[in-house]
Amino acid sequence: MRVGVVGVNGIGQAHLFALGSSLAAVCDVNAERAARAGDAHHVTSFTDASQMFASGLDAAVIATPPGTHSELVRGALAAGLHVYCEKPIAPMSDDGYALAADARARSRVLQVGFQFRFHKGYAAMRAAVAELGPPRRVDITATNWFRAQKYFDASPWRAAWRMAGGGVLMTQAVHQLDAMIATVGMPSRVRGQVRRAQHDAEVEDEAEAELEWRTGARGHLVASLTEPAGCERFEIVCEQGTVVLSDGYDVRVARHDEVQRLVDECPDEFPEQPVAWEAIDVPRAPSEWFDMMLDAHRDFAEAIERGRGPAVDAHQGTLSVELANAIYLSSVTGEAVDLPLRHGAYRSVYEELAAGRSLPGSGA
Q1: Least packed by Cβ within 10 Å: which of 22, 67, 130, 310?
Q2: DSSP secondary-structure letter at 313?
Q3: Please, are residues 155 and 66 in contact by the beta-carbon 8 Å criterion?
Q4: Helix (H/G/I), strand (E/B), else coil: 192
Q5: Strand 337-338 to strand 189-195: parallel, antiparallel, or no bridges (unpaired)?
Q6: C-alpha of 291 from chain center
Q7: Are residues 123 and 44 in the same domain?
């Protein structure tokens, strides 16, 4: 295939190397940066994406700020290209689902860059939960994203609602939201609160949410950019056991009989359950983060070649955006929000946030 990359800074650099000999063109609004990338990889450089889309490519990778994704993806699809779009697919889920429908109508592959779907620790967690029956409680701590102020100062678009679409929920912990949805499904109701606690930015750097599922399962999410000693932890309590994932690769499983049976049939008033924790062996590679990127690109190429859907199509890749939108909406309104979101329900709130409305509890 001949693939072009739009946006050659930041994560775009990883895509350039992941594509290898498939890389055929690069594009960036910064002419010097585009030319430098083109020279380094011996491909044609562009500063106008539409010109690159019309240059005889098979597919395009969109690695620009989220606020630009919708227009670029639509342009690539209209040019007949398959598209790999970095996460999030768009700041608002309505736009993400519209792009998914556009790709289906054109019979084009549209993959969202949730490389963590290929994370071996997350895969082990998904497999373990699938064996243990329906989830009862889902608790997620995603405070492993500490960022200094320089993170926002170096690339000011990261601080802006209009370009980033949000803060820790949309830019960092969206990976954990996606992993949760892939493992236990989409919640049916959320009550959330986000705030800007430590950083000089429009977007939130801390978020919490209470989660409910139609099955009766409950959960809690904490995400932060402000904890130097932060961690990543999933604790998923199921009918026949518990799965705990810590910091990506430490996966442990405890198995037991069905909870209802234990409650009903145990003869003791204060029973002690002999639960043994089993450590799941999760293989790691020296270049594990880049390997996930390579796996994502392999899946994208195979989806195109075999005429199948990718591991994370545009609809799947929009669910985490919808969940983040619902948490923002709940934070602004102070009320619980039901999912799926009604079409247009978040748009007016997003426009207010992008126009400078202060976040609740941010003190500004």
Answers
A1: 130
A2: B
A3: no
A4: strand
A5: antiparallel
A6: 17
A7: no
